[in-house]
Amino acid sequence: MAYFEGVLSIIANLLLFALKYWAGIVTGSIAIMADAWHTLSDSLSSVIVLLGSKFSKKPADKDHPFGHGRADLIAAFVIGIMLLLVAFDFILESYDALKNRESSMFGSLAIYVMIISVIFKELLAQFAFWGARKTESKVLKADAWHHRSDAISSLVILAGIFLGKYFWWIDGALGLIVALLIGYAAYEIIRDSIYTLLGESPSKDIIDKLKLTCERSYPENLYPHHFHVHSYGDHNEITFHICLPPEMTIREAHEIVDHIENQIAKEHAYSATLHIDPNDQEHISIDY
User: Fold this and answer.
1) Dist CA 74 CA 107 (whole Å)
2) Alpha-carbon torsion (232, 236, 237, 240), positive or negative
3) Which GO terms describe its molecular function (predicted)?
4) Which residues pair with 241 in a beta bridge?
């Protein structure tokens, strides 16, 4: 899915870049030229999608016992950094345009090019979002937001084209607006990838589902607690504690833990590791 989306994005973005760059030269618009480079950056991010997707599918080895799934997150982080650089470049160019009181003469060509850009970029965004929901790929989600930010920036420019003949500063102002939109998208992509790389607390929904699995697996209350989730792309590790009677034999406790871990793998696709605490008031009151 990520590979196909990446190839499709590269082809579409290169064609759109050429179209918008030509329109920017003809009209002399800094906003359209900046938008063209934004589209070209989408092609670079799609290359990263391809590389990240291919590398993340490599099986586990001696040096990477949990696989290479976090390459997906690193690729998403790189895309976010690229977006920040694009946004910063837009700010500088827009500032120069406003300072020098530069204006652009928009025409029918600019209108048609921006309409084409909005339609195609939103279609690419919708496809990437669909793929991200289906595969839970963060890099696909990051690429989708890259497409969406380009569609929004083209839409903003399209709206500004109709105001260009009334306000000389509209082109520079549009450049600044586009930069802010891209910068915010970059912030969200970088934040999400860093949070997952550093490790996140599992959501209440996940914890409730795991507790329900424990309840169905053993008749007594196990007081599951101290949950930790580690994501490696398609592979997810989860650890938590349960409480068992202190008089229980090691074999009995081992069989219970094995059964719960197998049920979690079957129901939630997590590789679980359980730690056993004695079922006494001290552990229950402190940890549960």
Assistant:
1) 42
2) positive
3) monoatomic cation transmembrane transporter activity
4) 225, 275
Q: Which domains does the chain have, with CATH numbers?
A: 2-198 (1.20.1510.10), 204-287 (3.30.70.1350)
192 C-beta neighbours (distance < 10 Å), count: 19
Over residues 152-167, the pLDDT tens digits come to 878 877 877 777 677 7
111 burial (CB, 10 Å; 0-12 / 13-18 / 19+) is middle
pLDDT tens, position by position, 65-114:
555 556 667 777 877 887 788 788 878 877 887 887 766 666 788 888 88
| 39, pLDDT greater than 50 | yes
- For the chain, the maximum distance between any two Cα atoms, rounded to a whole number of angstroms, is 85
Percent of the chain clearing pLDDT 90 (strictly above):
4
